[in-house]
Fold:
Amino acid sequence: MAVFPLTDKGLSNQQKPKLSVVTSSRSWLRSVGIILVLLISIGFFSRMLLSAMIVQRQSKIDNFSESIAELDSANRSLMFDIAQLESTKRIMRIALAEPGEEFEAISGLGMIIPEITTYLDPISSDSLQGWQWRQINSQEQRQ
Structure:
């Protein structure tokens, strides 16, 4: 008859393996090392991502600054052109030019310089004493 070691109770008592819990300091050091390497790599990746975002936003800010400078330069140029067009000398030249003459692509107005210039005096409070004040638009006048 064949003897099976799993079913034979006499044999199993003699050959039981001795098992014991092994505490190795290497296992937890390895786990801590792996965790530290993972944390350092995540930190490095986060730093690179943050740097890329900062560079991208700085380039946008630089583009905005350049466009603002260009628009400011164009605005100053246009303001200078407006000042030249509004100058008193230019307006007088156009006003005194004959209607058939063209000055800067604008035909003259043919105005003349008067012999005498009369200026009006401003109204003082003394001249307003006899003035009757009344409201022009009122609800009573409409009805």
Notes: The first strand starts at residue 102 and ends at 103.
